[in-house]
Amino acid sequence: MLKKAEEKWAVITGASSGIGLEFVRQLYEKGYSLLLVARRKHRLLTIRWKLQKRPKGTYEVLEADLSTEEGRDKLKKWMDVHKVDLFINNAGFGLAGDFLETDPETEEDMIKVNVLAMHILMKYAVRKMQEQGEGAVLNVASSAGLFPGGPYMATYYATKAYVTSLTQAVAQELKEKGSRVYVGCLCPGPVDTEFNKVADVQFALKGITPKKCVRSALRGIRSRKVVIVPTLTMKAATMGGRLLPRSIAVKLTGRQQKQKLAGDSPEE
C-alpha cells in the first residue's frame, strides 16, 4: 500500500464495466488510490470484493447517477476533500437507429451523461487541478467525435463531437497559460465491451480489447497527447474523414453506420 504522503488519487466514472473497469484494473496495478464511480451499486460491490482479494492500494466506491445534479454533487463533495491527480471522465453510452424512430427520453439521458455531466465534471476537475498546480483529465470520447456526422447514430456522434471539440479547446487554453494541468480525449474505434449491446449495434471492424485501449490511453497521458486514437486503422479512417468533403464523409459514414444496426447484412 502506498504511504499517505505518496498517495495519488485517480477518479474513474463509469467504472463498473468496459473501458472504465479496465482503467480500474490497470491503475490499481500501478498503485493509484482509486475512487470508482458508477450508478450500479451491485457492480461496484463486486469490483470491491475482487480488489479486496488483491490488496495493493486504497480504493473507495461511490454510487452516483451522473445524469442527475444530485449524483454530480456527490462526486464534487468527494473531490472537495481529496487531491485528485487523475480524472478519467468515462461515463457515457450510445444509441443506434433512425433519428425519427429512436426514443427521445433515451437520447435525452445520453445527452445528460455524454455532454452535460462530462462538461460539468471536467470543469470542476480542471479548476481543482489548476489550484493544486498539477493534474490530468482524460475525457473518454470516441473516434465518432472526429467525423463530421454519423447518420443512424446521429445523437451519439454529436455528443462525442462535443467532447473532442471542448477537450481540444481547453487543452490549448491551458497550454497558453503555461498550466501544468493536462487535458486530453481518448477516441477509440470499436472496443469489445458492453457498449455494442447497449447501443444495439454490430461493428464491421474488429474491435480491440479494453486492455489495449487503456494501455494506449495511459501512454497518451504520459506523453500529454491531446487526442488519443489507439489504432492505426482508426487514425487512417479519421484522417480520411477530414480530407474528404463533409457531404461525402457524412454519406460514407452513414452507410457504415447503417450496416452496424443489429440485424442488417454487412453486404447491404
Task: Give a description of the structure.
This protein is an alpha/beta fold. The protein is built from 9 helices and 7 strands, in the order βαβαβαβαβαβααβαα. Helices cover about 50% and strands about 15% of the residues. Strands 3-2-1-4-5-6-7 form a 7-stranded parallel β-sheet, with helices on both faces. The termini are far apart.
Tally of contiguous helical segments: 9
Strand order of the largest sheet: 3-2-1-4-5-6-7
The structural class is alpha/beta
The helix content is 40-55%
Mean pLDDT, all residues: 84
The 3D shape can be described as globular
- Total E-strand runs: 7
Summarize the helices and strands and which ones pair or pack.
Blueprint: E1 9-13, H1 18-29, E2 33-38, H2 41-52, E3 59-63, H3 69-80, E4 84-89, H4 104-132, E5 135-140, H5 154-177, E6 181-186, H6 195-199, H7 210-222, E7 227-228, H8 232-243, H9 246-260
Parallel strand pairs: 1-2, 1-4, 2-3, 4-5, 5-6, 6-7
Helix pairs in contact: 1-7, 3-4, 4-5
